[in-house]
């Protein structure tokens, strides 16, 4: 009997061990090695993070470079190359940043305050976010090898968030490189402190990044875009595959481990694939029609309100999302749900009113006589064309006359800079991490929102440092937005990605893809 | 012959000058702007203007055209806005995949087109003729991208026999290079074979109706001797023309195949360059393709003389 018991115990123990061995426990089972092959849409215009806002540049450069801050879970700023959040003087005008020590660049040099000063000064002259921040800076200087200090002209709410945004970001380059390339000229030497370093760039074939062996990780756990970073894979190979059907096929045949920006109709096929699985990318974009408020018909606020009153957003979103409810969300907040700190829930806003009578009345009040409204869109992004076409139908139902002009993307982005050439254009609004970053509420971005109330409140939001008061301002701003209608906010659209079933620990919650901390199971 | 050759080569210059000017004007006249694409969707208007100045895009178009002529005469095609390298280097890097694809597709097209045309033409009205010519008609009608995507789905995704897309240099790894090239070469070659087959057939039918064929038959020669010994060589002259044209089309026209199968060749380069408004690259590719086109035509004319000794160029 004893003997029998022992045998049974032995079997139980063995089974238990086998189960434990087969389940990857966090932090234990990660495997080093392998190549992560990522299929993406195209070629980055630059690998200089300071230079362009292109999202593909953002994705790629965030593997090579790091900034002083990054965004953690819930898109909250967390320290990256800075030791901690900055020390702020009592009057709120002096920020002191302590840098981490012993952080190495890919060329072996240690990162110090000189590199930070040179890089951020360059960033402050070229980047959208850098310029906004440096407009408030009166002095930026080195204190000692590991400390820099920023003096402001007035109190500011955007210092840390500006240094933490991943797009067009304040990447730290070695001083020699930051000095060598003037801000308006794109840098063509790529040395950062990130977990991967650039090994080879063959345009239209691949970009190879290999593990940086001397990478000094933070001690914290991975969080959002930041925290501890480990380069498990030996190499990330970014392969531009412009044809979307080919990207789907290649992730199914395991020629790719990851495919980004897929057509939503591939969802069902990917769900039944033996090698790959679909990932819904959320947040992605909210769809938007931007009005030309400098010249032409849409300078008339009543006409913009009529557009807002007329449209029925749900059928448009459903259609754009290919009839799949997984891929859209109805929401009036200007910040998506995922940006928890700035998401608003305000009842009674004139969003998605579907009120044809109100629209007709507003058209009358506007004195509209059926003049054609030039609405420009593109078929290069199918969702833009789809929502523009459905909008045209709905608007013409209430008496608008829409001249829908379909252009290629390059033409559209050129034309939208010229106030003489359009009345409205389509695009998508990605994620903004701070109210001051919403570009459609500025006078410098196409569409040119120059409403005094909106601009004054944006300025107040940039100055106010108390989070509670900032939220109050943001709620007021949202109300004003729906009254003045600088742009039309449609619903949230989600994207589709696919990953190999062998890929582990991919963070599905971030807007853009990251492959540090990701590993491949053999 | 030498004088003729020299004349033809000299005639190249005005042809290319016209092509280059038209392309330069076309690409600059279509709206769109490389700078807006490069700086991304959130760039401000002032930033875009500053970069346009840095690239010289704010200068008048005739000024830019003159600069371009000057460069071309020195053999310099300029610098790509996007690729951070001279256009000549970018072209050189893409030439190999396009040449490999062109030649293998041509091989497929000739291997399918010439025999089926000859068989169909030798036995007009037979069941073979009908089957082959219907297939050729299908080849002309089926859109290239549709055929390519179906090939990928069947042979790569379902059967897993061949890779779905990509490219490997046959100089580096011949076996892998070949595996990558099978699907693109067959799908591109198949549609091109149709034209060759139809021309080969009609030439064969024409030649077989000639008096000297009747004489050959009257001599009591076998069917094989009549076809291969007498008819084939005479039927081939127009076929060579078509093969030459096909090759020229393939060099500039493999765009869809290169995109679907993700082959980093000239076709893909020119399409991405057009979408990004990378003017120097578009001009470079067109100049090179036009030169290749004209040279291939010249080559075809030379080959006539070898196939048909009656043809003389002096």
What would you note in describing this structure?
- The complex is a heterodimer of chains A (522) and B (314).
- Chain A is α+β, with helices and mostly antiparallel strands.
- Chain A has helices at residues 2-22, 55-64, 113-126, 128-134, 159-164, 175-180, 244-252, 267-271, 301-310, 313-320, 356-366, 382-397, 409-415, 452-463, 467-484, and strands spanning 35-40, 69-71, 77-79, 87-88, 94-98, 137-144, 147-152, 196-202, 206-211, 235-240, 258-262, 276-291, 328-329, 373-378, 402-407, 424-429, 487-500, 503-504, 519-520.
- In chain A, 31% of the residues lie in helices and 21% in strands.
- In chain A, helix 9 runs antiparallel to helix 11, helix 10 packs antiparallel against helix 12 and helix 14 (452-463) packs antiparallel against helix 15.
- Chain A is globular, with a radius of gyration of 25 Å.
- By secondary structure, chain B is mainly alpha-helical.
Q: Could you provide a short overview of the structure?
A:
With 522 residues, chain A is an alpha+beta fold. Chain A has helices at 2-22, 55-64, 113-126, 128-134, 159-164, 175-180, 244-252, 267-271, 301-310, 313-320, 356-366, 382-397, 409-415, 452-463, 467-484, and strands at residues 35-40, 69-71, 77-79, 87-88, 94-98, 137-144, 147-152, 196-202, 206-211, 235-240, 258-262, 276-291, 328-329, 373-378, 402-407, 424-429, 487-500, 503-504, 519-520. In chain A, helix 3 packs across helix 4 (128-134) and helix 9 runs antiparallel to helix 11 (356-366).
